[in-house]
Amino acid sequence: MDLVGACLAFVHVSDHAGFTPGAAAAGIPQPVASRRVAALEEHLGGRLFDRSTRRAVLTQFGRDMLPAARRLLQAAEELQHDAARAALRPLRLAVPDTCTPLDLALLGARAREAGVAADPVPAAPAARRTLLRDRDVRAALLAVPSAEADWTVPLGAAATEGPATGTLHLETLRLGRTDLGTRPRRLWLQPEDDVPHIRDPLTRMRDALGLRPTQVATAPSLAAAATEVLAGADLLLCSPAQADELDLYWRPLGGTDLARGYDLAAGTGDEAERLRHLLDRDIARCLGSPGGPR
């Protein structure tokens, strides 16, 4: 039975001392109010009203049950209020801090059209995991190996000069005999790529080629890494979209197939799947994933 609806009829009939005015106050027809009260009496196992009079007079059992019925109605109202607030509560989503403000704005607009009040929170890879673990966000785009990813972003080396096509090989950074005393060129990683599945292959390649340890380095921020590249002949590990934004020449790296990988994680699997379905292409645009989601 509809226990809330039955209690609503019971309380209003009691407050107005009659089924007809009580039903009107509850916004239901009088026969419906009578049926609901009768169903409640059967459910509770006792008569709520004395029907020997023209007025709806509470029995002792009815007087005993009335406070609990009022509490039930109040709890139902609070539940509806909390549900409405929860629907309006922003969904905090941890995203890479490489996402541009424009792409995040477009993501937020698309989410609102889909009925989700998305609130992007830019953060570095480790910070995104911490935010999700500590429940400071409801969902996060986590950095994962490309084989495990929903979205992938190819990585290469970008510089201020050079051909716009072809492959760049890290051995070209090796110093020759005539380069003694000069500062070696470096490949800069931004914090977004300071993760094992990207950093470690580059470190192994650096060592195998005989490059100096400082020639593959991680900058404290994308701006700091880009500054080193724009101020000299260094290289930036980045996506094609980032190279375009910084007006740099981008080429893939030879000898490796590096890519950022992203997985959408949430407090519940259902919520993660719902966000993938609603925002897959918008997330891909934010990440710079050329092919969209897998």
TrEMBL record:
Pfam (any one): HTH_1
Molecular-function GO term, any one: DNA binding
GO cellular component, one term: protein-DNA complex
Keyword field contains Membrane: no
Matches recorded under SUPFAM superfamilies: Winged helix' DNA-binding domain
Keywords: DNA-binding, Transcription, Transcription regulation
Origin superkingdom: Bacteria
Boundaries of every HTH lysR-type domain copy: 1-59
InterPro entries listed in its UniProt record: LysR_HTH_N (IPR000847), WH-like_DNA-bd_sf (IPR036388), WH_DNA-bd_sf (IPR036390)
Family, as annotated: Belongs to the LysR transcriptional regulatory family.
Record PANTHER family: HCA OPERON TRANSCRIPTIONAL ACTIVATOR HCAR, TRANSCRIPTIONAL DUAL REGULATOR HCAR-RELATED
Protein name: DNA-binding transcriptional LysR family regulator
Organism: Nocardiopsis algeriensis
